[in-house]
C-alpha cells in the first residue's frame, strides 16, 4: 500500500502534469515542423539543387559492402532544417508575445534622492546661520 500512496503523490504533483502536457504539445509541434520541412522546405531545396536526392548517394567498396552515406547526410540536413525551423518559429512566437504583452506605462518622473544625514545637518546649520 505504501508504494501506491507514493505513486499517487508523485502523479498528483503539478510537475508530472506539466511534463505530460509538454510531451503532447511537443508531439503535435513535431508534426508541424516535419510537415514544414518535408512539404515546403525540401521541395524548394530540390528545385534549387536540380532535384538531386542526397539519400541515394553511396560508396560501393565491394559487392558485399555498400556504404549509404547519403542517408546520413540526409539525416544531418533534416536535423539542420528542423532546428532552423524551430528556431525561427520560436523567434516569431517570442516577438509576438513581447508585442502583445507590453503594457503602456507612463514613465515615472525621476524623483530626487532623499538627503543624507550630513546634508540635513548642514542644511540646518546653514539655516541657523542665516537667521543669526
Describe what this molecule looks like in 3D.
The protein is mainly α. The chain has a single domain (2-102), classed as Non-ribosomal Peptide Synthetase Peptidyl Carrier Protein, Chain A (Orthogonal Bundle). Helices cover 71% and strands 3% of the residues. It is built from 4 helices and 2 strands, in the order H-H-E-E-H-H. A two-stranded antiparallel sheet has the order 1-2. Strand 1 (59-60) and strand 2 form a beta hairpin. The longest helix is centred in the N-terminal third of the chain and has 35 residues, at 14-48.
Task: Please describe the topology of this protein.
Layout: H1 2-12, H2 14-48, E1 59-60, E2 66-67, H3 69-101, H4 117-131
Antiparallel strand pairs: 1-2
Provide a quick synopsis of the model.
This protein is mainly alpha-helical. It has 4 helices and 2 strands, in the order H-H-E-E-H-H.
Search tags:
132 residues, mainly alpha, Non-ribosomal Peptide Synthetase Peptidyl Carrier Protein, Chain A, 71% helix, elongated, two-stranded antiparallel ribbon
Strand content: under 5%
Structural class: mainly alpha
Per CATH, the superfamily is Large-conductance mechanosensitive channel, MscL, domain 1
Strand order of the largest sheet: 1-2
| Bulk shape | elongated
Largest sheet: 2 strands, antiparallel
Distance between the termini: 89 Å
**How much helix is in the residues?**
over 70%
Number of structural domains = 1
CATH topology: Non-ribosomal Peptide Synthetase Peptidyl Carrier Protein, Chain A
